Amino acid sequence: MGRRVKLKLGSRIAYVDLVHEVAEDLARDAHFSKSESLNIGLAVREAVINAIKHGNAMDETKSVEVEFEENEGSFRVRVRDEGPGFDWEQTADPRTERNIFRSSGRGIFFMKHFVDRVAFLRRRGRGTEVILEKRLQPAGRAGRGGATKRRKG
Amino acid sequence: MKANARHHGKVTVVDLSGKITIGEGDIKLRDAVNALLDEGRKNIILNLSGVSYMDSAGIGELVACYKRAAEKGATLKLLNPSGKVQDLLILTRLQEIFDIFRDEREALASF
């Protein structure tokens, strides 16, 4: 069982940078490359933005929970909101001729691109949970528990 | 995110640096481009070499700026997107929409 970090935040866009930074730091600690860690940070950022904007409808009294878990073979992030839910199945491909000039609608597309698995769970009366999962890289697994290389700073 | 405009005759180059993300960078980008369009500037180059990354809101604002420029009869082109920004432009297929240059002189001469 790896380490688990949990954040609980109000629904404020100002907190998005903080969560992104934590996500990127934890990904680096899990031995993802700098580029992969940024991708994980970007995926988490988009999930949190969705939770604040579409899940909690910008209601600052509603919380967003973000739980990071490094487990056997994977780095998993759960983002939960308290809203009535949003229809993630209706998200269109932003690259089509019809959608490419839209100024929104790329968040879920980014999430799906930046991690290996994205799942949406509707929690009855308790909002939506988005699960983002990225498989740990072999070098990371080999380094765990021993003389692991830590990131500077 | 910082935005500094330089004028080269009829062309304006906006040097952007930092990250273009929701809540701050996207708004600064919008304000910078809107100010130039309000001044009647028709030829705008966004220099992205100093931009480390963008999120969906930043990419969305870039598209919105492109559309607003076109509505006002202006043209918006991109210069030197960095690695991650370039990746995002390719991923979203926006590199097929924008004129993107690696060399500032070429970008200036393209208008």
Task: Describe the secondary structure blueprint for this structure.
The complex is a heterodimer of chains A (153) and B (111).
Chain A: E1 4-10, H1 16-29, H2 34-55, E2 63-71, E3 74-80, H3 107-114, E4 117-123, E5 127-135, H4 138-143
Helix pairs in contact in A: 1-2, 2-3
Chain B: E1 2-8, E2 11-20, H1 25-38, E3 43-54, H2 56-71, E4 75-79, H3 83-91, E5 100-101, H4 104-109
Parallel strand pairs in B: 2-3, 3-4, 4-5
Antiparallel strand pairs in B: 1-2
Helix pairs in contact in B: 1-2
What does this entry look like structurally?
The complex is a heterodimer of chains A (153) and B (111). Chain A is α+β, with helices and mostly antiparallel strands and 153 residues long. Chain A has a single domain (4-92, 103-143), classed as 2-Layer Sandwich (Heat Shock Protein 90). Chain A is built from four helices and five strands, in the order E-H-H-E-E-H-E-E-H. Chain A has a five-stranded antiparallel sheet, covered by helices on one side. Chain A is globular. Chain A starts with a strand and ends in a 10-residue tail after the last helix. In chain A, 36% of the residues are buried. By secondary structure, chain B is of the alpha/beta class. Chain B has a single domain, classed as 2-Layer Sandwich (Transcription Regulator spoIIAA), CATH 3.30.750.24. Helices cover 41% and strands 32% of the residues of chain B. Chain B has four helices and five strands; from the N terminus they run E-E-H-E-H-E-H-E-H. Chain B has helices spanning 25-38, 56-71, 83-91, 104-109; strands spanning 2-8, 11-20, 43-54, 75-79, 100-101. In chain B, strands 1-2-3-4-5 form a five-stranded mixed sheet. Chain B is globular, with a radius of gyration of 12 Å. Chain B starts with a strand and ends with a helix.
